[in-house]
């Protein structure tokens, strides 16, 4: 899989997690215990989330 495809999937995952949990970047940052700028960087492709954040993002995106 190309990184560009994976990156766009991660961005989609983050947006879905925010939407389904009814929160914004700051709220998601609080839930994940990261800085709001980290969420912003992930969304802009400036940085990638560490692997430990993928499962919590997926859980938020999938909902209860």
What does this structure look like?
With 64 residues, the chain is mainly alpha-helical. The protein has one domain (3-62): 434 Repressor (Amino-terminal Domain), CATH 1.10.260. Helices cover 70% and strands 0% of the residues. The protein contains four helices and no strands. It has helices spanning 3-21, 25-32, 36-44, 54-62. The chain is globular and about 30 Å long. The chain starts with a helix and ends with a helix.
Helices and strands, with pairings:
Layout: H1 3-21, H2 25-32, H3 36-44, H4 54-62
Helix pairs in contact: 1-3, 1-4, 2-3
Rg, alpha carbons: 11 Å
Number of alpha- plus pi-helical segments: 4
Strand content: under 5%
CATH architecture: Orthogonal Bundle
What's the quick description here?
With 64 residues, the protein is mostly helical.
Keywords:
64 residues, mainly alpha, 434 Repressor (Amino-terminal Domain)
